[in-house]
Amino acid sequence: MDYSVDYLNTLKNVPTPSYIVDKQLLQKNLEILTYVKKQTQCKILLAQKGYSQFSLYPFIGEYLDGVTSSSLFEAKLGREYMNSEVHIYAPAYIPSEFKEIISIADHIVFNSTSQYKKYKQQLLKSSKKIDVGIRVNPEFSELSVPIYDPCSPYSRLGVTEKNLDPSELVGIDGLHFHTMCEQNSDTLERTLQVIEKKFGKYLYNMKWINFGGGHHITRDDYDVEKLIKIINRVAKKYDVMVYLEPGEAIALNCGYLVTSVLDVMNNGIDIAILDTSASTHMPDVIEMPYRPVIIGTKQALKNPYTYRLGGITCLAGDVIGDYSFIKPLKE
Known about the structure:
Layout: H1 5-12, E1 18-21, H2 23-40, E2 43-47, H3 57-60, E3 66-69, H4 72-81, E4 85-90, H5 95-104, E5 107-110, H6 113-125, E6 131-137, E7 159-160, E8 174-176, H7 185-203, E9 208-210, H8 224-238, E10 241-244, H9 248-251, E11 255-258, E12 261-266, E13 270-274, H10 278-281, H11 284-287, E14 298-299, E15 305-310, E16 319-325
């Protein structure tokens, strides 16, 4: 994006720390997702764990089909602020919450057949028709960061082929898988080869399949046309509705975290203390790890002034990274 002086001054004048969303950039992403929907007749949901700025839910709801949730309170948030389809999946459901989940959700996906059997009678007794799904684990992924890999050995997420008893699929409307994180459609294509080999025989009896999230559809180098071909092939072959539930792709490159320098110090290197925090405001910086892009900076030592940017918490590892600037930083 071309950052004009006026644009940057607008960002500089907001109180910090603040998350800023550029609505025009968000709309651009939503239009890409709408294009995929129109070319395939698939449904696309907002994964709230990836993006949950609920003040924009009514706007997002003009383009997408609903939300997917990982807890009762996320489901309530989606119902209240977008009020379209509400899907929910959790590794396990809390018994005291399940009655309320039934009253809110349109799709409930279970992590295991034992969880499904536990709550099956409650679902059957409900006057509300709810689609029920099972999450499957293909034991295949192309992720290099173990903490984000749902298909790593001994994963608790989803039913493997070995542990799926066909007789336990009676009453199941769809299969769900989630194996990707910030990846392109070629990864989805290879993943589906494994999914179909292991679980394809069950899809002929299903109403839908959910491809999960992790699809970086709005990234500049993403192969959207390949995604469209994949969706149409699967939908036609098995006569199913295809769901996607991207999170990051919806708001990718649409906003900023604006921060201020509180202090500058030196301990062998120059250090700037910010009024934001990696652990609080950008946890992926520590968990992924992930390096945020900062407007007007370069890698360390590439510009005249290099600083290590540190957060305001007492966590020793609350460090955003080393960046170089054209001018020295000051409070």
